[in-house]
Amino acid sequence: MMSDDKVREPYQALVEWMEATGPEQLAQKREEAETLFRKIGITFAVYGDGGDPERLIPFDLIPRIFTAAEWRLLKRGVEQRARALNAFLFDVYHNAEIIKAGVIPGELVFNNAAFEPSVIGIDPPGKVYSHIIGVDIVRVSENEFYVLEDNCRTPSGVSYMLENREIMMRMFPELFSQLRIEPVDSYPESLLKTLKSIAPKGCGGDPCIVVLTPGAMNSAYYEHSFLADQMGVELVEGQDLFVENGHVYMRTTRGPARVDVIYRRIDDAYLDPLCFRPDSVLGVPGLMNVYRAGNVAICSAPGAGVADDKAVYTYVPSMIRFYLGEEPILNNVPTYQCAKPDDLQYVLAHLSELVVKEVHGSGGYGMLVGPAASREEIDAYAGRIRANPGEFIAQPTLSLSSCPTFVQSGIAPRHVDLRPFCLVGDKIRLTPGGLTRVALKEGSLVVNSSQGGGVKDTWIMAE
Amino acid sequence: MLSRTAANLFWLSRYVERAENMARLMEMGHRMAMMPAAGQGYRSEWQSVLAAAGFSPTDYIPLAQAEVADYLVFDPANPSSVSNCLEQARNNARAMRTAITADMWDAINSAHMELKKPALRYMVRNNLPEFLDWVKRQGALFRGATDSTVLRNDGYDFLRLGTFLERADNTARLLDVKYYVLLPETSVVGDSRDSYQWTTVLRAVSALRAFHWVYKDNYTPLLIADFLILNPLSPRSLTHCYAGITDHLQRLARHYGRRSSAAAEALETYSILLHGDMEDIFSAGLHDFLSDFLVRNAALSSSIAESYYFGGQ
After folding, report:
1. Is the pLDDT of residue B57 over 60?
2. CA-to-CA distance for B46 and B175, rounded, in angstroms?
3. How far apart are CA A10 and CA A12, in angstroms?
4. Do A254 and B2 touch (CB under 8 A)?
C-alpha cells in the first residue's frame, strides 16, 4: 500500500473510513470478528507444538486491495501457469517430451519422491492432473509480481477466503455498499462444476461426488467440511468407502452407493494401502485399481505433486515457453538449486542474505531466513545443506510489499502474500480474490499460518 | 446418507437429550433432598438419583449434594455427566458438520464453550437450580434449531429417533427413582412425603400444570405414573416417545423402500404401551415394568444401528 510513504490510490476510501471509525472501534470490531470465528468453528490445528488443536488463525480487519487492472494481470498469469503445469504433468506421465528436449533434467522428475509410476500412461478426463492450483504470489513493486510456489496437490485456505469475506461483510456492510468489490462466493459452485466436469465417462447421469477427509483431527478439517457443505456433497472418511467389482462405493443407510468423483484432501501416500503405505488407515484399499480402470476420478490426480516441488518450480517459466509458446506473465523468484555445484557455492557464501527452503518442505517448516538468523543458526544450517545439497533451494529475500495491518500498537505495515485458487476442469475458473496471508511479527517475512501468520480479506475492485 | 453420518446424528441428539435429562434427574434429587430424611428405603435421595441414572451404588458413594452435583455435571470419569454428554455431542456434530445446520452447530458449540467458563462451575456449587435451568435451555435451543432449520430428510428421522429413544429411557429412569427412594414401597404410600415426592417427579419433567389440565384431579401415584407412561398427550411419556419412534421408523421404511426389523420391534413395544393398564402395571410391580421397558428400549437402539449399518456393512 505505501510506496514512497503515500497511500496507494485503491486504499484511499478505506483509509478515510478507518480514520473516521477510530482505533477503539476497530479494536472492538476485531474482538467481534474473533468471537465470530470461534463461534463458527473456523480453526486450524498446528501439529506437534502441544498447543490448541482448535487454534484460530489471527484475522486482520484491514483488507488487501487490488485494482481491476492489477487483477487482470494476476489472473492471466495464474491461468497461464495452471495450463503449463497441467501440460507438464500430462507430459511426464506420457512421452516426457520436455525431458527429451533437454529443457528439464530427467532425474529431477523421475527421482522425485512425488513422481508416481503407477499413474504412467493414465489419461484423466481433459488430460488434467491438477485441478486446484494455489499459486503463492508476492508483490515487490507497483506492477511486479513474483510467484513463490505453485501448490498443485491440495492447496488449503480457500475456506478462509470465503469466511473472511463473510465476516467482513457482516461487520462492515457500509464499506461494501460504498465500494465495488468483486464477490467471491461463487467458488464452491465453480468447484462443483469443475468436479462434475471430470467425472468418468461411464458414470452416466449426475455424478456422485464426495470430499475425502482424513477426519476431524486434521488441521484443515474445517475447510473439508465447509467445502462439502457448500457443494452439498458427502464428506467421507476412508472407512466410509470400499472397492467392489471395479468401482468405489460408500457405505450408506440404504446400503452401498457408487462414487464417481473423489475430491481427496489426503496425501497420495495414504490414498490406497494396497498401492502406497500399507499402514494407512485413512485410505481406501483398491482405490488405485479403480482409478487406473477409469471408473473413478480423483482430484487432484495421484502424482500431481511432482509439479509443485520447489526444485521443479524453477522450471515453470521454461514449461510455459515449451508447452504454450508464450512468455511467462508472472516472474519466478530467482532460485539457486543447491544440487548444482555453482549454485551451492554461492548459497553457502551468502547464507545471511538468502532464504533457504527444503525442496519437499511445506508450511514454512525447516526454512532458514538468513537476514533474521544468528551466526550459530546459519552455521548449523550450512552443515545440513552440505550433507544433502539436493534437498535445498535458496532465494534472495525480496523487498516484499507490505500492507497496513491492525497490530497491538495501531496500524502498521506488515508483509503479505496472496494465494488465488485456480480451478482446472473442462475450463479454467479463477475466483476474483484469494487468501492474503500476513506476517504479524514486525519485519518477519514468514506468513505461514503454522508459523504465527495471520489472514486478511482480499478485495478485487470491480471495473 | 452415510451410515456413519446417520449414527452420528442419532447419537448427537441422544447426548443432548441425555444432558437435559441428567439436569431433570438432578432437579428431582435437589427437591427431594430438601424434605426431611426419609429414614428408610435407599440411604439418601441423592443415592437413589445415582442409582436411577444407572450407577451401581458400589461404584461411587458421594454423600453431599455438592459432590454428587460435581460428579453428575463435570466428572470426566462419569460417561453420562452433563459435560461429557455435551462434549460428545459436540464431537459428533463436528465430525459431520455437513449434516447439521449452522444454527444447530451454533447451539451445541455455544453450550460447549459456555460450560468451560468458571461462572458455570461456580453456579453448580452455589446455585444448582439456575445451572439446571441453563442445561435445560441448551437442550431446548438445540431442538428448536433442529426443528426450525434441518431438512426433513432421513437425517431428521435419525435425529428424532435419538431424541425419543433417549427420552423414553430417561422418563423410565426418572420414575424409577421413586422405587429407589421408597423401598419398601407400600409402607408409606399415601403419606405427605410420598405425594411430595411424586409431585417432584412431575416438576422434574416440567409437567405440574399439564397434569392438572389432563386429569383435573389430585396427584395420585397411579395418575402420575399414567401421565408419564401411558398418556400419549404427555410429551415425555413412554407412549408418546414410541409414537414418535414408530412414526420415524416408518418414514425411513418409506424413504428407503425397505422395512427394518427395528420397525417391527418398535411396533411391538408401542402396542404394549397402547394396550397397557396402569392398575395392572402397579399390581404387577412398577419397577419390574420399567426394568423390562429399559431392556426393550436398549435392544431397539441396537436394532436401529444394525438396520442402518451404523457399524459399516
Report:
1. no
2. 14
3. 6
4. no
The answer to whether residue B101 neighbours chain A at the CB level (below 8 Å) is no
Taking the Cβ of residue A38 and every Cβ of chain B, the question of whether any pair is shorter than 8 Å is answered with yes
B151 and chain A in contact, CB less than 8 A = no
The interface predicted TM-score (ipTM) is: 0.76
Q: List pLDDT tens digits, range B199-236.
A: 888 888 888 889 888 988 888 888 999 999 999 999 99
Distance from CA of A237 to the nearest CA of B (A): 9
Nearest-angstrom CA–CA distance, A71 and A460: 7
Q: Is some CB atom of chain B closer than 8 A to the CB atom of A218?
A: no
Is B312 domain-assigned? Answer: no
CA A75/CA A73 separation, integer angstroms = 5
- Reported as a pLDDT band with limits 50, 70 and 90, residue B192 is low
Tell me, yes or no, if A226 comes closer than 8 A to chain B by beta carbon.
Answer: yes
Edge-first strand listing for the sheet containing A255-259: A241-244, A247-252, A255-259
Residue A32: strand, helix, or coil? helix
Domain count, chain B: 1
- Is B256–A252 a contact, with Cβ atoms under 8 angstroms apart? no
Whether B313 is covered by a domain: the verdict is: no
| Contact: B3, A251; criterion CB under 8 Å | yes
Q: Is residue B23 in a domain? A: yes
Q: Please indicate whether, in this complex, the C-beta atoms of A216 and B91 are within 8 angstroms of each other.
A: yes
Taking the domains of chain A in order of start, what are their residue ranges? Answer: 2-200+296-332+398-460, 201-295, 336-396
pLDDT over 70 for what percent of chain B? 88
Q: Is B65 within the bounds of a domain?
A: yes
Q: Which among A226, A229, A236 has the least Cβ separation from residue B2? A: A236
In angstroms and rounded to an integer, the radius of gyration of the C-alpha atoms of chain B is 19
Is B26 within 8 Å of B69 (Cβ atoms)?
Answer: yes
A252 reaches B (C-beta below 8 A):
yes
Q: What is the pTM of this model?
A: 0.83
**Contact call for B4 and A228, based on CB within 8 A:** no
Q: What is the pLDDT of residues A110-160, one digit of tens each?
A: 998 899 999 999 999 889 999 999 999 998 887 789 998 899 998 888 999
- B95 in contact with A at a CB cutoff of 8 Å? yes
User: What domain range is B215 assigned to?
Assistant: 3-307
- Quick check: B3 and A252 CB within 8 A? yes
* CA–CA dist A460, A180 (Å, integer): 9
Q: Topology of domain A201-295, per CATH?
A: Rossmann fold (3.40.50)
CATH for the A336-396 domain, from 3.30.1490.270, 3.90.1580.10, 2.40.30.170, 3.90.1150.30: 3.30.1490.270
**Which DSSP string corresponds to A124-187?**
-GGG-S--EEEEEEEEEETTEEEEEEEE-S----HHHHHHHHHHHHHH-HHHHHHS-B---TTH
pLDDT confidence of residue A399: 66
For chain B, give the number of residues: 313
Distance from the Cα of B113 to chain A's closest Cα (Å) equals 9
A40 and B113 in contact by Cβ < 8 A? no
Of B95, B158, B312, the CB nearest to A216: B95
* Residues in chain A, pLDDT under 50: 1-5, 48-49
A243 reaches B (C-beta below 8 A): no
A234 interaction partners in chain B (CB closer than 8 Å): 2, 5, 98
Which positions in chain A touch B98 (Cβ < 8 Å)? 225, 228-229, 234-235
- Flag whether residue B127 sits within 8 Å of chain A, measured between CB atoms: no
